[in-house]
Amino acid sequence: MQLKRLVLAKPFLTLAICIAAWMVLPFVIKRAARLTFFEFQAPIDVSAATIRNLQDYWAMRTRDPNELIEAGKEIARLNSFYENKIRETKTLEAEVARLEELLRLPVFNTYRAEPARVVRRDYNAWWQRITIRTGRTRGITVGAPVIFVGGVIGRVSEVGLYTSVVDLISSPGVRLSAVIETDGDHRPVNFQGRSSAAFSNATGTLEFVPFDIYIPPGETVRVVTSGLGGVFPPGLSLGVIKKLEPGADGLFQSAEVSLDPRLSAITEVTVLVPLNPPEPPKGAAQ
């Protein structure tokens, strides 16, 4: 009987010994082990994403040629439209540069855009993350903001050699300063991600909203980044709110922020890499 109990308790005893050994290991060894595992896992994620791309390619080869011809015509129309937009953007950029030089205004080119493809998604109750196919080789840094056509995606939390992990703005651990787009009101409020039910659109929470901010019934108001904190540029879209409710403390209002529904299915993102990243404080752990 005793022998049977020892056999049954052996896995739990081994697990307890491993946990105790991990707890007493120095931080440097833990960090090295974690980074090694991250770099070992990165090629697996990239290979899986490449296989999915090949599957999509061969699936498209089975489509009706007429459908592909129509899709090609639509892509040609979109290319023409975007080419005109690129010309307009270059003209406006030249005009802005001329006015900045004429008025001797400071230049705010503090980021460069680095496109990246999503290779993995990790959604659970504690965090919501994606892994992108770019890393230190492209100058990606921890904390860099990540955007797409609909606004803010999140920020880089981990950087490997060829891949990086991005915490989505729908993750409960993401907090940032925001502004409600109302007439003449630029007071910052607090935005935080919030866990959502399965198969539902991502949401966030807006807190510390002053009571004198009012949203008419039936209208939606956009929420954008405030630019405070030096991480996200100002004016990037976060989501929309429909109504404000009194907060739990009775001093401020709160609201549910509806995030872009494309957030959970995005395949291409852009990382805003700081041109002059802040230096770490002296004595900080590398």
Structure overview:
The protein has a domain at 110-275: Rod shape-determining protein MreC, domain 2 (Thrombin, subunit H, Beta Barrel). The strands form two sheets. A seven-stranded antiparallel beta sheet has the order 10-9-6-7-8-12-11, with no helix packed on it. By secondary structure, it is of the alpha+beta class. The chain has helices at residues 2-24, 27-61, 65-103, and strands at residues 111-123, 128-132, 145-148, 151-159, 164-168, 175-180, 188-194, 203-209, 221-225, 237-241, 245-246, 253-258, 268-274. The mean pLDDT is 81. It has three helices and 13 strands, in the order H-H-H-E-E-E-E-E-E-E-E-E-E-E-E-E.
Index terms:
globular; alpha+beta; Thrombin, subunit H; 7-stranded antiparallel β-sheet
Elements, N to C (H/E): HHHEEEEEEEEEEEEE
Strand content: 25-35%
CATH architecture of one domain: Beta Barrel
CATH third-tier fold name of one domain: Thrombin, subunit H
Q: What is the structural class?
A: alpha+beta
Number of helices: 3
What is the subunit organization of this protein? Answer: single chain
Strand segment count:
13
Gap between N and C termini, in Å?
53 Å
CATH class of one domain: Mainly Beta
Q: Runs with pLDDT <50, length 5+?
A: none
Helix content: 25-40%
Topology:
Layout: H1 2-24, H2 27-61, H3 65-103, E1 111-123, E2 128-132, E3 145-148, E4 151-159, E5 164-168, E6 175-180, E7 188-194, E8 203-209, E9 221-225, E10 237-241, E11 245-246, E12 253-258, E13 268-274
Antiparallel strand pairs: 1-2, 1-13, 2-5, 3-4, 3-13, 4-5, 6-7, 6-9, 7-8, 8-12, 9-10, 11-12
